[in-house]
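pipeline: protein-struct stage 2 | run 1193 | ATP-binding cassette domain-containing protein
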Amino acid sequence: MTLSRPGFTLDVELAAEPGEVVAVLGPNGAGKSTLLGVLSGLLRPDAGHVRVGDTVVTDVAAGVHVAAHRRGVGLLAQQALLFPHLTAVGNVAFGPRAMGVPRREAERAARDLLADVDVAALADRRPAQMSGGQQQRVALARALAPGPGLLLLDEPLAALDVDATPAMRSLLRRMIRDGKQTAVLVTHSALDALVLADRVVVLTGGRVVERGLTRDVLTRPRSPFTARIAGLDLVPGTACEDGLRTADGLLVAGRGNGGAAPGERAVAVFPPSAVAVYAKPPQGSPRNVLPVRLAAIEPRGDVVRLRAGAMDGGPDWVDGLAADVTPAAVADLGAEPGAALWFVVKATEVGIHAAGG
């Protein structure tokens, strides 16, 4: 499908098999919300088609565009957006009632769904009498009540507090898996993708730059954004016999070629925990040595993350690289933001993979 707006074009092919969950990741402005708008019927693409199950709900060439409320697509967004004047039962029964299901039957099914999402006791309460987490559970039941052929999950956990998020994540997994629900999940969370999704698609600038099984994409990222949300460091360059060579000529030694032939675009990936940090250039070692300027010091529980920036006149691929070290190591370095440091990584810790599109 293709949809153009001033300064932006969404050009995406996406498929979710019956009962499969596909996570869509990408930075702000990548086109994730636009994609959901097209799938839901709120936006009309300029070209292409959308099919839900066996039903074509959008076909630009044929002039087909099924209205949003008739295409069998459910939505669970960041905010619950429940009808404030209706009880939980009334909210969940609304979709089936709109489809012509008799009131008693719709309310009976609604109470069953509320029990499934563990809020049966709240059936007769209105949204103002519920917590945010409780409202989101009711919203999930409401989205599932009409039996949608496709469920759209638009960062459904983003607005929840840290106490409610794990329980809601587990509930989503149970409801989606047990119901064999086909879903498209938009998220910025690697954990949400790992727990909920079978496959991942990564968007940048309105186009797919990575796709594959969730664990494969998040453990072997091929774009800077994916590496960042997966908590990994990434260095771009060109594959060579010994690993990867950056645009400024630095050789990064690593293991495997990840499908990248010599001369092709590739990335070197490694975890921040594999990085040793020195205040002076280390000598006589076959390890990878990356000169950086310390940009930030970020306490993270038992470790401290040192965030790198480029040296004056140095390559910009250094920006954002991270090293996780102990508080004692930070004290030994005596470094403050702006100081020159050297990140050192063993070749055995570096994976070389083909770059994303």
